[in-house]
Amino acid sequence: MKVVIKAENVWKKYGSTIALRGASLELREGETKVIIGPSGAGKSTFLKCLNLLIRPDEGRICIDGEEITSLKADIIRLRQKIGFVFQEFNLFHHLTAVGNITIGLTKVKGMSKEDALEKAKRVLKMVHIGEDLWNKYPAQLSGGQKQRVAIARALAMDPLVMLYDEPTSALDPGLSSEVLLVIKDLSERGITSLVVTHEMGFAYEVADTIAIMNNGRIIEEGSPEEMEYMKTKEARNILNRWNGMKNGVLA
């Protein structure tokens, strides 16, 4: 399988604080990779570097074989290959659920309003948003519904890969489960995905590969079945906290 994202030796500093210390990762087509680790490990910063929402200080990141960190890169075009789902939904409050999806299709993709509407309806069905909610505004939706609309909006752009930055961190447990079920369903459809999460049971259930991050770098990777055989003491210490809470949250 081809490599969709390749990050090599990515560093990021904020003043005297070093958020990333040479983080490296590969994501292959059709793979679902989950990044876990304690708070402050650099997970969200790393994810945002992958499509230059945050520009790294050092390192190299390639999307579908093209280096997005190159000063010559067409960043806008390369970003269109990545669907990004934020913690806080980031929906347009003045637009309905359908409107939040069609605006990108018409303004960025150049689709007709009719074609954009049909596609919006299709992706909303994929994330289990019923017709009764299509013309609702974000203020009229639950947190879980907002996040599923945000996922649909990203999917509508036909990205090569979906990136999820703690997609359930702003949700109550009941609403969190409905979002995780949608991500799992999309993963089972073969959509390439990279998920940053604290939801350990979800990580174990959905991931092809789990990457453990700590202190600004990926320290080890493996399948869920390989987690108990991690080589480094650093990784084992993190996983020891995880083993008893596969249905809980890694703080």
Write a brief structural summary.
Helices cover 34% and strands 25% of the residues. With 251 residues, the chain is of the alpha/beta class. The chain is globular.
H/E topology pattern: EEEHEEHEHHHEHEHEEH
Low-confidence stretches: none
Seen as an oligomer or otherwise, the chain set is single chain
**Total count of strands:** 10
Number of helices: 8
User: How far do the termini sit from each other?
Assistant: 33 Å
Description:
- With 251 residues, the chain is an alpha/beta fold.
- It folds into two domains: 3-81 and 159-243, P-loop containing nucleotide triphosphate hydrolases (Rossmann fold, 3-Layer(aba) Sandwich); 88-141, no CATH class.
- Helix content is 34%, strand content 25%.
- It has eight helices and ten strands.
- The strands form two sheets. Strands 6-7-8-3-9-10 form a six-stranded mixed β-sheet, sandwiched between helices. The chain has a four-stranded antiparallel β-sheet with strand order 2-1-4-5, with helices on one face.
- Helix 6 links the parallel strand 7 (161-165) and strand 8.
- It is globular and about 55 Å long.
Question: Topology, pairings included?
Answer:
Elements: E1 3-14, E2 17-28, E3 32-36, H1 43-49, E4 58-63, E5 66-67, H2 75-79, E6 82-85, H3 97-107, H4 113-126, H5 143-156, E7 161-165, H6 173-188, E8 193-196, H7 200-206, E9 209-214, E10 217-222, H8 233-243
Parallel strand pairs: 3-8, 3-9, 6-7, 7-8
Antiparallel strand pairs: 1-2, 1-4, 4-5, 9-10
Helix pairs in contact: 3-4, 3-5, 4-5, 5-6
